[in-house]
Amino acid sequence: xxxxxxxxxxxxxxxxxxxxxxxxxxxxxxxxxxxxxxxxxxxxxxxxxxxxxxxxxxxxxxxxxxxxxxxxxxxxxxxxxxxxxxxxxxxxxxxxxxxxxxxxxxxxxxxxxxxxxxxxxxxxxxxxxxxxxxxxxxxxxxxxxxxxxxxxxxxxxxxxxxxxxxxxxxxxxxxxxxxxxxxxxxxxxxxxxxxxxxxxxxxxxxxxxxxxxxxxxxxxxxxxxxxxxxxxxxxxxxxxxxxxxxxxxxxxxxxxxxxxxxxxxxxxxxxxxxxxxxxxxxxxxxxxxxxxxxxxxxxxxxxxxxxxxxxxxxxxxxxxxxxxxxxxxxxxxxxxxxxxxxxxxxxxxxxxxxxxxxxxxxxxxxxxxxxxxxxxxxxxxxxxxxxxxxxxxxxxxxxxxxxxxxxxxxxxxxxxxxxxxxxxxxxxxxxxxxxxxxxxxxxxxxxxxxxxxxxxxxxxxxxxxxxxxxxxxxxxxxxxxxxxxxxxxxxxxxxxxxxxxxxxxxxxxxxxxxxxxxxxxxxxxxxxxxxxxxxxxxxxxxxxxxxxxxxxxxxxxxxxxxxxxxxxxxxxxxxxxxxxxxxxxxxxxxxxxxxxxxxxxxxxxxxxxxxxxxxxxxxxxxxxxxxxxxxxxxxxxxxxxxxxxxxxxxxxxxxxxxxxxxxxxxxxxxxxxxxxxxxxxxxxxxxxxxxxxxxxxxxxxxxxxxxxxxxxxxxxxxxxxxxxxxxxxxxxxxxxxxxxxxxxxxxxxxxxxxxxxxxxxxxxxxxxxxxxxxxxxxxxxxxxxxxxxxxxxxxxxxxxxxxxxxxxxxxxxxxxxxxxxxxxxxxxxxxxxxxxxxxxxxxxxxxxxxxxxxxxxxx
Length: 859
Description:
Blueprint: H1 3-12, E1 23-27, E2 32-35, E3 39-46, H2 54-65, E4 73-81, H3 85-93, H4 101-120, E5 135-145, H5 153-169, E6 176-177, H6 180-191, E7 225-229, E8 232-236, E9 242-253, E10 280-288, H7 292-309, H8 313-317, H9 320-338, E11 342-353, H10 356-372, E12 376-379, H11 384-390, H12 398-404, E13 408-411, H13 412-418, E14 434-438, E15 443-446, E16 457-460, H14 467-479, E17 501-506, H15 512-516, E18 521-525, H16 550-561, H17 569-586, H18 592-600, H19 605-613, H20 624-627, E19 640-644, H21 652-672, E20 679-683, H22 697-713, E21 719-725, H23 729-732, H24 735-742, E22 746-749, H25 754-762, H26 770-777, E23 781-782, E24 793-800, E25 803-809, H27 813-818, H28 823-834, H29 839-858
Parallel strand pairs: 16-21, 16-22, 17-19, 17-20, 18-19, 20-21
Antiparallel strand pairs: 1-2, 2-3, 3-5, 3-6, 4-5, 4-10, 7-8, 8-9, 9-11, 9-12, 10-11, 11-13, 14-15, 14-25, 22-24, 23-24, 24-25
Helix pairs in contact: 2-13, 3-4, 7-9, 16-17, 16-21, 16-22, 17-18, 18-19, 21-22, 22-24, 28-29
């Protein structure tokens, strides 16, 4: 070798970071990783639980008590990263070409705004509280040492058997054994967390599996280097700018008394949402399995020594001997009675921040937050690189345990209590029509039509809690989401036009602005000048049979004729016969006048009286204009139809009957449109129709029964019903309301006054846990304050299929202005639209005005 070549070799001679990564190769047939130690390992990727129960506790107890070869290492890790690309891929896959013409542009603009808001919100604070969107995963890694460089069949079989057993016991975590691509993606995210490209541009399944270099060499983005300092590790990009800073902290002391589930507190303030940890992090429970016979014998020797010392005069001077004796007695009971295993453990936290300043601030925040939880935390300085490597998957090594001085002994029972497997529920789908977040930042993917029972929703929200805004966001989201899933959302080859159709019944014009956004929308004001017929007969599709509409027509007729609710058994029974007579004679051409005529000709005086009571709704009656065949029926063929009943509010009798006829008409449209498009029927201010007292209570009984029937039928037409009230007790205090809740898979509760929650708990209407009621009492709505604070959100308590969680709705300012119900903002928006601007142009102008105003205030 020439002198020049030797100089070049000397310059280039260094230990690259990739050489410190332990993975040699992935053994695809065995589904395990070959490591340099030498060792073999499996990584199980799980979804965290949002809480605890005895099944989960017993699962970990059993896992940790299982026999493992001496020296086996186990890592149980809760990981927080900004990788929400799978959620965003699913969001895009059910969008694109879901509406036609100009509405498509509007729909996609809103979808893009929401999509980009969430993606940007993983890397940049969405408000001045520092809130960012996260994705939590629970990783469970097991590693066995092997004798040679290549594992024997027996060694492979042993690890496979242990892994399969663990997977079966973690079935409630939706576990899967990580492949090469799964490991590659997750380590790429950890080591390149704040990059704007690379992993951030594609979903996990889009990662390429082909590679020509060692797996460990492909994890750090080319051009980056790593600098190790005494207080952290600096990752620098190709231009030598710091792009990430890593710290490691150790939890030296936990609270004196712990309860199972307490580890959830380490992730953030899930109970109130006032404080969160939004940088990336890994909470690692690192376990090393010692020789059980020797470890238990050593425990017994220590217990005997302490027992002998903890008596007599010495105990008076060294009182901690008594506490040590109690601890060793407890350990002895766990070993002898529960057959607990002895483990070596350390509990550490690795943080990933944008730069050193952010890293120092985040570490300081963690230490302060944990101090309030009675957890003693220290920063691991001077030994930081081994600590960092030891807390990566497969990184836990015997030498690390020996020299770190961070490991203590515990029983398998305590290891269960220290396992960080809790974070937030992620929702019910990978193709979200609707996205929210938890208080801890986890993106929550929702699709109300992904339900094993029904799709119906009951939403209760006190005045001022953001109900109309939330409903508007829901409607916009579902209008732009379809059934067909694009395999490549960026390059759609199909234009399905299968976005949902939404029908809204409201009192108060809350949705007028929403309807103005779309060309294919109708805003129907039901008043004295309404020139359409509400006759229900033309809208009947199937009068008889199990699912026939005869009972719904009967309910309408009873509401028309008997507003006091007084109807005899004879009238109730004979009315079906009258309906059959009219239907057989005239079919869809029948009118209320025809029903009255048959009743007046009936031999029973009670039916004659019923016919007379129908007169106000016949052609000659005061309400005849609404129900005769003089006017055409309403065409419910638009994608968004808002039926505004404000002008009928002064006549509750007519308002209820019109509403019942509306439901029949809308159900016909739902039936005729088939199942290739989702439908939603939303009744806002529904509390008015569930009254159990007052002058209208008897009349509303007919409507409540009617609505309950409709609620049971919606699923058959791929539809969902949404009932919105102010107080949750509005529904629970009427039989029909309780039936609607019983037939609603989704219970959504926004901020309620304390009296309503106390009553809900006292009357045992809702069979929730103490934690559920505590969370209900902490629900908040923070309204926008432009120029003062950019924090704004609505909180919703969601119950679905036994799962409960508080979720937050965050949106960008422009979407807030589109969906606003604030009178001042609506007036400004309307003023700009009156000047000839479109809705979007008016919103952009309002947004620009607010930015200018803020700048002037700062200046």
